[in-house]
Amino acid sequence: MSFELPKLKYAHDALAPSIDEQTMKIHHGKHHQGYTNKLNDAIKGTDMEGKTIENILMNLDMENKAVRNNGGGFYNHSLFWEVMSPNGGGEPSGDLQSAINSAYGSFADFKEKFSEAAKGQFGSGWAWLCVHDGGKVEVCSTPNQDNPLMPGIGCGGTPILGLDVWEHAYYLNYQNRRPDYVEAFFNVIDWDEVSKRYAENK
Ligand code: MN
Description:
Elements: H1 21-43, H2 53-58, H3 65-82, H4 94-104, H5 107-120, E1 125-131, E2 137-143, E3 158-164, H6 171-174, H7 178-185, H8 191-201
Antiparallel strand pairs: 1-2, 1-3
């Protein structure tokens, strides 16, 4: 059983103008498909075949660049599409709101921290909101297609929100204006989905 490109739960143009249709088509259909195909090639005939992507990443030999880059790419994008929605935006409520407030003081302070992580990631990478066992949340960033599930990343817990800051994620619409893209992302975050992931992983 090999990995398959997950279907989007909305149309390619549904997140516009925050994220434009052409970027979504290329990002999902070309980039994510590419990571998926290369991951399948990289694990074929190994003991990773048939395991979940989470299991593969948590037990990864970080010297295995093919699985690190493409397994990370497969997982990271699969999360990214799920935590966005045309009906997104606003702020979380309930337990996740409480966890964010106890870690960062307020939603506004969390947003600033997350945005700084996204804008400050030099070159390609991701910004994350993670949850640790016990429910504490943490913002961090990783380079390339690394993510907090991988060993020794220095950014721990289970990712429940991720933002792709590779240029391929925003350059068509925003060119070099990464801060504008980061701001627009907050218009499409599906906090119901992020809250669900918080509850499942705390
Ligand atoms: Mn990407």
